[in-house]
Amino acid sequence: MNKISFALTNLAAVLCLTLCSAHAQLPEPDGGTIERGVLPTRWLSEGLKCMEIPEWQVHEYNPNFFLLRQSPCTDYEKPVVFLFFGKDKAMLIDTGSRKGNLAPSLQWVVKNWLARNGRTSIPLLVVHTHEHGDHIAGDAALQAMNDPAMPVTFLAPTDLEAAKRFYGITNWPTDIGHIDLGGRMIDVIPIPGHSALSIAFYDRRTAILLSGDTLYPGRLYVQDFAAFQASTERLIEFTKGKPVAHILGNHIEETSTPFLDYPVGTIYQPNEHELALSRGSLLELEDALLSMHGVPQRMALRDFSVWPSGRQFAKPGDKEKYEKHAKEEKEKMWDHSLQ
């Protein structure tokens, strides 16, 4: 390559870097139309005593978006669920794991929101990131609430055809669906791989991408490797040119120490990794998957790990280690300061 060609190539790269990313940049000083918010600096799941941890920790990201995290004392999975408010509807994404008892905390948040906004009711859509038990265990209780302040429309997590109709997706998983809450448009991106019906949600108002169990600070369990890789690439393509404030998954299984996670079954998690990841994490995940050349394997990265599912990927003694650790955690759940 001669000097002129080299210079032109570099110029083109600089121009592309500037112009191709222009759509993801927003004006100073306040990010234009993006609604900002604050994530927790600490979750109560890091507490030593289960008596001091509520069934659900409620966090207000901003006045119209809430995160609720299940207590580790009811289930070590301690998933996060998400609650959005639009002008016409509210939407709850996931209902928690076993023994979660989400309904009282959800009603408390919704009714406080109604009081603050001078309203008496708002329809509530209940949807899911995917169909696994630690994301749908609260479904039956919410369907049975019968609360006139928040009449529920429920989307079954295992009905693909119903989901396609509800979100306006013709071709699964390549089409992008949408749900309008009234002045709040949520984009719906099919991302099978972790499970057959995994879905990501992008909130245009906060520029937050909810990635379910496909990407979060922890062990990314992969059921279908080819689909998981394709979904990762689809998320990268979807977010290209868009602002991404945070990528939020449903769990934290990683410590704040790079490349170190908590063992499966851990209740007490001091020094947790923050919940939020960035678009850069998507690129890092794609790079890791490509490096496997179609042959799935466990791989630890800085902020998460790739864990293909199946007996062939298990290591000797995994089951025994989990059972021993889970037993020890339960024995200490009332006071983890006691060794």
Automatic annotation (TrEMBL):
A GO term, aspect molecular function: hydrolase activity
Annotated signal peptide: 1-24
The species this protein was found in: Granulicella mallensis
Metallo-beta-lactamase domain: residues covered: 78-251
Positions of transmembrane segments: none
Region listing for Disordered, in residue ranges: 312-339
Name the record gives this protein: Glyoxylase-like metal-dependent hydrolase (Beta-lactamase superfamily II)
Ranges annotated as biased composition (Basic and acidic residues): 316-339
Cell membrane in keyword set: no
Keywords: Hydrolase, Signal
